[in-house]
Design brief:
Keywords: Membrane, Transmembrane, Transmembrane helix. The chain is mainly α. It folds into two domains: 97 residues, no CATH class; 69 residues, no CATH class. It has eight helices and two strands, in the order ααααααββαα. The chain has a two-stranded antiparallel sheet. A hairpin with a 7-residue loop joins strand 1 and strand 2. The longest helix has 30 residues. The N terminus is likely disordered.
């Protein structure tokens, strides 16, 4: 490696500052993406946010699908592209350190195997935590969706469905 890079030259410090800014931006975009998924089964998302997004994202090229593309694919593609830039800057600066020894020690606790014999093979603490959070999000999402669906059922629609059911049975 170059002695300038090791001595903390201004260009090296600038690259490290740019990498820190990119990481912060990626974190904000990812957290916003998670908030979108958490808010999706609520009425606030469907009645307030989505119509506003669809009105602003309508284009002649994508049409109605423009809002869907914007909501679901753009954040992930943006994170991937900026992640590549961040990795490229890290390779340019020659900084391959992953953190202090204290951080490595705390991360080592999460990287220990929690489940060894199971259908998923060896599962670490980090993987188990994210799996548990994913299952909690899926359960909450579908329970909120079903709860919102049942709230829209009116007495008249129940009577109509009972009449249609009896007519179908021939009685």
């Amino acid at each position: 490696m170059d002695s300038e890079v090791m001595n903390g030259s201004p260009s090296h410090e600038g690259i490290m500052t740019a990498r820190a800014a990119i990481r912060l931006l990626l974190t904000v975009v990812f957290l916003g993406h998670l908030v979108k998924w958490i808010m999706m089964p609520t009425n606030t998302f469907w009645l307030i946010w989505l119509p506003d997004i669809r009105a602003k994202a309508y284009s002649t090229y994508f049409g109605e699908q423009g809002a869907t593309l914007l909501l679901y694919t753009f954040p992930i593609l943006f994170i991937a592209a900026l992640g590549c830039v961040c990795l490229h800057l890290g390779r340019k600066s020659g900084d391959y350190s992953t953190g202090s020894n204290d951080e490595n020690h705390l991360m080592a606790l999460w990287k220990r195997p929690m489940l060894v014999k199971g259908p998923l093979g060896i599962v670490t603490g980090i993987e188990m935590t994210f799996f548990t959070m994913f299952i909690a999000l899926v359960v909450w999402y579908f329970s909120s969706y079903i709860h919102g669906g049942f709230a829209e059922i009116t007495r008249e629609s129940r009577i109509i469905s009972v009449v249609a059911y009896r007519a179908h049975l021939g009685g």
